[in-house]
User: Fold these one by one.
Assistant:
Number 1:
Amino acid sequence: MVEFGGWEMPVEYSGIIEEHLAVRTRAGLFDVSHMGEIEVRGPLALALLQYLTSNDVSRLKIYQAQYSALMYPQGSAVDDCVVHRLGDDHFFICVNAANTDNDFEYIIRQNPYDASEVQVRNVSAEYSQLALQGPASAAILSKVTDAKLTELKYYWCCSARCCGVNVLLARTGYTGEDGFEFYFPPSESEKVWRTLLDAGQAEGLIPAGLGARNTLRLEAAYPLYGHELDAETTLLEANLGWICNFEKGSFIGRDALMGQKQQGLRKKLVGFEMVERGIARDGYSVWTESQRRGRVTSGSYAPYVKKNIGLAYIPPEDAELGRNLEVEIRGKRVLARQVALPFYKRPRSPKINH
Amino acid sequence: MYPEEFLYTQDHEWIRVDGNIASVGITDHAQKELGDIVFVELPQVGAHLTAKESFGTVESVKAVADIYSPVTGEVIAVNPKVQNAPELVNSDPHGEGWLIQLELKDRSETDHLMTAEEYEAYLKGGAAH
């Protein structure tokens, strides 16, 4: 168990590699109750979220979700998040554990509307969250829910009964596999956890911890706030232009991002794999054109692709698929090569191993 | 149970001495703490090691750990299997997962190391690592 964002969390149960491979080939169950939840309701809830986030909230149908970012004026993220629309005037946002209080206070501070128009609540204490991820997730979940999973598409959610408990069920996740995230009252945590593990026995479901959560998201090239994202990094630099909607109207940071489109990026996020022996780790320096000019934001051995991989910021002029770079590993420059992202993409046809 | 024929350091290395040749590895406790080991960096044959100085690293998915030489000496062998199969250090840390062999300069350097019994007591005492 380790401290993470103010919570005691398991790094691993049976081992990071075993858990990672289980998620890629069968299914894993994560306790992600440390994540934060913020509720925004009222006739101007949509307007507020359009102003504060990068993505176009108005495109969301009821029970649809989108990956987005809460924005600073300089075009960087306060946090990345998933916005779920639960009603015309009702939104439920999942945010990072370490940023929950900061995000909530930021929304309150930036909110130009009054309480009759928008109510913002930090409801994190009212929700536990579990994530069931892997190709066998739907088969397992279908045994313990009344929800019609064949009709629940990726990045959609619904209210459902799961494991005898009312939950918000979302087809979302942080692993790059098919999967679900469940939000429900903390008092029901143990029941949901145990029921899912029992239901998944035949499929080989095992619990998975923070270690595997990190290696899985890294293979899928999903950013982690504090690494690929921070207050000093714009969404364009982080390859998140796709969650910026410049046509929706004004939003915090829009001008800065438009300006950067004109002037060019200061740095670029690239993926790399090690060519010579060595593991790149978070924070290691990166050398391009024989100069120390970049930094690894996330690096690790990747258990499914079985390579040492990483993400790094380098000068935009040095970013090119196939081009070499060097990672400084404990004083030694070790050769690596830029590769396309993501490192892993789930195959279209189902692969289920028992 | 920790092998009686080994001696142990506070940093969780083991050393087995036969005459003036010593084999060195990390203990079962160390491999458990590290988790899945994915990379081992060892010195070249011929390298000169000094007691208590780092001679390489053992890396797991989540951590990088320096390995310290219990004694001073010259590296005469490096385990050829652990480079390509680092998981051997997890599965057999006291046997197949050995790391290096050295020629010792001074046998008395082992005098202060722990016996198996002392090491087990050290572990039970909730030693910091």
Note: The longest strand of chain A covers residues 291-302.
Number 2:
Amino acid sequence: MSALAKPATELRIAGSKLPAIPLPTNCPGCGVALDPETLRKHNYVCGDCGHHFRIGADAWIALIADRGSWQERWGDLRSHDLLNWKVPKPYQEVVEKLLEDGLNEAVRTGTCTLADRPIWLAAFDFRFVGGTLSIVAGERLARGMEQAASSGIPYVLVSASGGARMQEGVLALMQLAKVNAAVGRLHAAGVPYFSVLTDPTFGGTAASLALLGDVNIAEPGAAIGFTGPRVIKQATYADLPPGFQSAEFQLAHGQVDLVHPRTELRRLLAHLLEMYP
Amino acid sequence: MTRHGRKPDVTTLSVWQVIELARHPERPYSLDYIRRLAPDFIELHGDRLSADDPALVGGIGTWHGRTTMFLGHQKGRSLQERVARNWGMMHPEGYRKAIRLAHHAAKFRFPIVSLIDTPGAYPGAGAEERGIAAAIAEAIMEWFRIPVPIVAAVIGEGGSGGALGMGVADRVIMLENSIYSVASPEAAASIVWRDNTRKVEAAEQLQLTSRDLLAMGVVEEVVPEPKGSAHAAYDTAAAALDEALNRHMQALLQQPTEELLQHRYERFRYIDSLVHAEPQFGPKV
């Protein structure tokens, strides 16, 4: 029996129980009435049409990490309002409210195992200011990548982000350079970097680490691009075809290696970890 | 305090007035500077894959006795030229051309001067289809591996990822009345309020003037412009830019390559270190 065939049965067991997320009553993909419990067991993918619901960083960690293996790093880094941003809502208040809600920045990172192999894992959380790349997010990403590069442990990223965070100004933009420099360290060290692009991945996040994976994996139907469709229409008055900037569009245009359903993601990542030792 | 301990000068212009100067239709563009810095400039075209992006000019010229690679966003002067240059907004081919020319420079040990003047990367369907996000991502990553000194100068507008894709350098300086921002004021207003007419309010929040960036430690120096801004006296503006670029370049040319690349890495890796020093940011590691 080959080493590749062996883990398939074990991997049917997902990492952990996924947390509950707020859901509409009907699937936006096919209109079927949703049962939250069934959907949760199915990793928040519609059983009828395969619509992938957006999930947070906590759910991603539960989905990918082996049960009990997650060790969060630098969770105490906090954003603060360096530009004294007041409009339309004070940035400091926005961040504090999100922290009270139990969210911890737009990126969480740490170590865990996946099918018993150690990995670095970073997951964006779209609920935290649109998953925007901030100084704290960039710092967590860069530190993790540097440690992955020096220890030779593979790096897995799950992105869901609107781009750079306006409220942190040009220093948010500089995070693109900061994290890409760190991605360069991963590549120079020969450490595998698997990037999972989920709905939505745009702007500075797409134009930095999300599309630089050794293997770029997109979720079916995820919107991925640089400029959002609203801005493209505003700027160019162009009619955008259906499916523009979808994961399948990016596959056809050579930007991602594969489009893969969430229910099979853990198995795919475990398989990749075996093939890139 | 800034990286070099200089204090920003006092200005009487409003933020929006500075933006209007940065976008002034008579403002000198990259080629106006490059032709003054290196009168023997030879433009080199194309990404060697599929196209030549006229929004980015690149080429070689003799500058202070040394063959130098010049790169720069180029806006057009006449309406016709503006359309042809796409208002200085690069397509993916532009970033691929820039990296192609950077490797060319590395082969011959030519230092690189990059002039930044763009509202942003082109927000169009064609750019998306040809992978603008990945083109910028790869350019930003690749600049960290180019083993020759790079000095970048923001000469007008430094708009978002489109600017940063040309702005990873060992030193980054700005002309006095130029701007550098996470997004154009219009785009920021559109993102924050879904209303791009609130651009003035957005501009005031973004802290995008040269002095703001110097204070944040994002750029090393602000180059003073002649009275009445750069468009009032091209030669004076070019001479000031020349002096500053050369001063930085001479220092970089002394550095061994390994040290140069390590410093470039650290420059961006710890670019927000002034923020880290704040207690609210939390403990380091």
Note: The CA atoms of residues 10 and 97 of chain A lie 40 Å apart.
